[in-house]
């Protein structure tokens, strides 16, 4: 029986997506979905355009023999993707421990490298690769990682003629998630599992 090439494409996409989700879940933990992000309307926000409309969805899209329910039909704008990605990275940095384990340092480095290869905006990914070459990721502690991230975000800001963010205020802008009983603590934290 002939194989539908679209099905093969979807299977590949699903594998990549699962891989990225697996890496991200190492940092965010299983409770992110039920938590709100703090500070999204913060006074320290330097952007005036944070309310991009969400991509439209349809209840059912016909693709050959396959019905894909609830999938987005509108491409995500570069700006929206950027805001979502920075939110993920800064929130992760806010939760990154003062004394990370070796595994956590390795994971965060890998995550950043994977982003620079797989970020779904080619121009941005290539730009980010150059930035990483000049600014290797700093993972020694919460302060190191969040300041490094603020710095590289500012490098991108400058290249886009956006205002530079004052990095001494990064902890005020990007707080930790509010979760009961340390439920948002990233997996592998020294306090939960001991040092690796
Ligand atoms: C890795 C990466 C590379 C990108 N490269 C490109 C590119 O080459 N070309 C392109 O057009 N777009 C690129 N983008 C998208 C771009 O950076 C913005 O996300 C997008 O233009 C939307 O900008 P924004 O003004 O809404 O705020 P964003 O830059 O998305 O920032 C979101 C919020 O973060 C806060 N913030 C801003 N700067 C900092 C900082 N330094 N530290 C901490 N918090 C801060 C502000 O409150 C701001 O509202 C890239 C995004 C990422 C994640």
Helices and strands in order, then pairings?
Layout: H1 5-28, E1 60-63, E2 66-69, H2 78-95, H3 102-118, H4 122-134, H5 142-159, H6 170-173, H7 190-193
Bound molecules: flavin-adenine dinucleotide (FAD).
GO molecular function: flavin adenine dinucleotide binding; flavin-dependent sulfhydryl oxidase activity
GO cellular component, one term: mitochondrion
Keywords: Disulfide bond, FAD, Flavoprotein, Oxidoreductase
CATH class of the domain at 77-196: Mainly Alpha
CATH topology assignment of the domain at 77-196: Four Helix Bundle (Hemerythrin (Met), subunit A)
Q: Over the alpha carbons, how many angstroms does the gyration radius reach?
A: 19 Å
For the record, the CATH architecture of the domain at 77-196 stands as: Up-down Bundle
Low-pLDDT stretches: 5-10, 16-20, 26-67, 190-196
User: What's the total number of strands?
Assistant: 2
List the ions, cofactors and other small molecules found in this model. flavin-adenine dinucleotide
Find the CATH superfamily of the domain at 77-196: ERV/ALR sulfhydryl oxidase domain
Report the oligomer. Answer: single chain
| Anisotropy-based shape | globular
The largest sheet is: 2 strands, antiparallel
> What fraction of the residues are assigned to beta strands by DSSP?
under 5%
H-E order: HEEHHHHHH
Strand order of the largest sheet: 1-2
Q: For the terminal residues, how far apart are their CA atoms?
A: 50 Å
Q: Count every helix, treating DSSP H or I runs of 4 or more residues as helices.
A: 7
């Amino acid at each position: 029986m002939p194989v539908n090439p679209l099905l093969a494409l979807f299977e590949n996409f699903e594998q990549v997506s699962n891989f990225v989700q697996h890496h991200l879940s190492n940092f965010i933990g299983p409770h992110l979905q039920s938590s709100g992000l703090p500070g999204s309307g913060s006074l320290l926000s330097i952007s005036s355009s944070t309310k991009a409309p969400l991509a439209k969805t349809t209840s059912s899209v016909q693709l050959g023999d396959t019905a894909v329910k609830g999938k987005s039909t509108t491409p995500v704008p570069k700006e929206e993707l950027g805001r979502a990605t920075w939110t993920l990275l800064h929130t992760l940095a806010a939760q990154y421990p003062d004394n990370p384990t070796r595994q956590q340092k390795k994971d965060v480095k890998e995550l950043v490298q994977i982003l620079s290869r797989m970020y779904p905006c080619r121009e941005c990914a290539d730009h980010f690769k150059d930035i990483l070459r000049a600014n290797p990721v700093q993972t020694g502690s919460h302060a190191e990682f969040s300041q490094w991230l603020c710095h590289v975000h500012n490098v991108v800001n400058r290249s886009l003629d956006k205002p530079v963010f004052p990095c001494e205020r990064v902890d005020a802008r990007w707080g930790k998630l509010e979760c009961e009983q340390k439920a948002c603590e990233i997996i592998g934290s020294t306090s939960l599992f001991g040092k690796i």
